[in-house]
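To assess whether the prediction recovers the assembly geometry, we first specified each molecular entity separately, as shown.
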Amino acid sequence: QQQVKQSPQSLIVQKGGISIINCAYENTAFDYFPWYQQFPGKGPALLIAIRPDVSEKKEGRFTISFNKSAKQFSLHIMDSQPGDSATYFCAASPRGSRLTFGEGTQLTVNP
Amino acid sequence: ETGVTQSPTHLIKTRGQQVTLRCSSQSGHNTVSWYQQALGQGPQFIFQYYREEENGRGNFPPRFSGLQFPNYSSELNVNALELDDSALYLCASSLGAGFSYGYTFGSGTRLTVV
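The predicted structure of the complete assembly is given in tokenized form:
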């Protein structure tokens, strides 16, 4: 059962542009929404996470926007760099326990 | 600070065999979760161990089993391997089992079943 839907599947942006990845969830018990970055041959690494009591969280060039009523959240990467090229996963969890991941977005940032 | 270490990094097994994958948690972490990541997909939760007790299980058959040891290292055992078990198996550790604690993932074990 797909509980977290992620789009787009792949994304190509130019250096300096904004990368936007979207996720939607179904389970209203989810209350922790992290984003992970994964490079080939490596495990996922936590980028940024949000809880539903806030609508936006920013850390450096990375921002999560959260819409509780629509059950959607998104990752914005400002001033995208070639080093940001990786696969990005959204995830959701009840009380931070088991993570349910989206299908992933392969981001390519062209120089 | 040591990270999460998994062994082996790669493994090839024959259908029907059994396999044991190992994970050393990040120092001080008492919670370990295991995930299966098929090629081109997001990780799927297998189970979690908190202080040596199973603390939740995903939709995986009983032939997937695990252990957590007193030093908080962990093993994932898979019996009667099937071709569809071919995947990257990820271990993630954390200080606790709640949202206050971020999960640190290892680089995984790539299992190929032939």
